[in-house]
Amino acid sequence: MEIILSLAIGVLGASGIWLVLRPRTFQVIMGLSLLGYAVNLFIFSMGSLSTGAEPIVVPGLPATLLHYTDPLPQALVLTAIVISFAMTALFLVVLLALRGFCDTDHVDGEEERQ
Amino acid sequence: MIDWLHSAMPHLTVVPVLLPMLTAALLLLMGGRRQWKALVNLASGIAGLVVAVALLAWVNDRGAPDAIGIYLPSNWDVPFGIVLAVDRLSALMLVLTGVVSLASVCFATARWDRAGVHYHALLQIQLMGVNGAFLTADVFNLFVFFEVMLAASYGLLLHGSGRARVRAGLHYIAVNLVASSLFLIGVAVLYGITGTLNMADMALKIPLIPAEDRGLLHAGAAILGIAFLVKAAMWPLNFWLTPAYAAASAPVAAILVMLSKVGVYAVLRLWTLLLSTGPTTTAFGGTALVYGGLATLALAAIAMMTTQLPRRLAGFGIIVSSGTLLAVLGFADAPMLGGAMFYMVGSTLAASALFLLGELIERARAVDVAAAIHEDETDHVPFYVDFVESTGPNHEEDEEAQAGQAIPAAMAFLGLSFTVCALVIAGLPPLSGFLGKIAMLTALLDAFPQRAVAGLWSMSGPGWALLSLLIGSSLLATIALSRAGIRYFWAPQDRPTPRLQVIECAPIAALLLVAAALTVRPDPVLRYTQAAAASLMNPAPYIDAVLSAKPVPAPVPAARASADGRAR
To answer: N or C: where does chain A have the smaller number of CB atoms within 10 Å of the terminal CB?
Structure first.
């Protein structure tokens, strides 16, 4: 479980960073999205990783992380997802506006000089 | 007055967040009535400033140990719910935000609010984010307010549209989205280690962290720090700032100045609370702040020499101010930090005024907006070309005619305002920039003997670097600003007199009058910033105040609640 999750975070994060550093606006927005996914998974991993556990304390069981999962990272991830989704949508609008103004999808609004 | 304040107090803390939010909602519902919207926005801005001043008066009225107002939104118990806390630093930043935003609104009503649909609503949302970031005592809530502030700033930066703004906006948004990802990673690591998001609670938990987890803690703190330092514009994370701020419309750029201060504030608050001092906490990050701040200061001062456009000069002025603050913060010395805060107040006001002034100056040059932006983009400013063309051979008659010519009032206002801005930003006597620098330098020289005892800065190399850079950056800023002043006000002769509206000049005059008032009566302000710095460097009362706050109906007996607070 830990290995799979860390591999997923690593692959998503690395691809995201590589894409963010690319010169095309579409690559940048894909990179930002992938980075967002990596960060969201990372926040999960900072709570306790447990399969099939609920964030609800059951009477009779001691309220430790051995018996239930931490609810806070889930709340944080939810907030982070909402915010990053809105920001991605906004970035998409700016991307299209730049494309309209400059007739190119280069992040600087002009092609590199050869 | 003060009695009334005490009775209203814990609830007054939430007003700087709620008031802009409700105003923004109202403005969105108002549709297209622009003049009414401007009026509502101005009224809300004035009310917000009054509340901020009331909070400042309350905090200042209380004695040193308990000058912290705590508000529990939704009445949740302390480490679980979100906490708003107002102390000296927060109140000072709230007042500063109020003044700057009011000037921005006032300036925008003349012309700029016609350039887009939702200027007024976006400005109020921006205000809500900035005020919330200054008030919150919860790390994740800080992230949310950062995002509110950034989302509004994206919209504001694009206000007026145009190629240059969209281009600068794209870079600005991309940089800030990456910084937000780093913010989340930092918060997640800190939560994973300490198990809490409340800043005060975190400050208590950090000394208990076993030595083998310290590395993880420091990694998380460093990642979080990078997110803040991008906002605060520390070198080498600041290349986005000047193009973005220079491309923004003037009233927007004036309020964006506060965003850099939010970054500096977040570093100030979290670093002093979590990692600077304390008997068991290992100090971490101070050296990075000192050297990063010094590099920022040096490079921004040199960068000021490369431009003559007022807006770009103001942008580099912001970076100089950030560099000074961060370097001084790294020394973790209360008197120096007090001086730096005094300097910050003056330099923020002056940078805002210079952004507003920059537009009027460009209009005075009878250049239309599109051409000005184009020039800005390439940063190509010819040297005295128009001056050389306009004079030609120097006839005796011409000279006499010029000698009798009166300076038009508008030109005199612009020239005087520019001079005041230049004096404050460069830190020349007699204005507040100079007093702030003197306060910092005095404290720096006083601090040297104690440093040798502490062993931390016994080599005093960074101290000497700061001393020479504070003076050297003044010199470079003076050269850059006086060169621009000569170019805009002295050299031109046949320029048409600009037409200025009172509503555009009033906010500039007000900002500069506040900056000048700091010189006339520096004593109370300096005493206030010194007290603020002293309480930052000794965070125990803040931690106690936050953790001992109790929900209003007190669901558990008071003794047990405080015992719980200690146990947690």
So the answer is: C
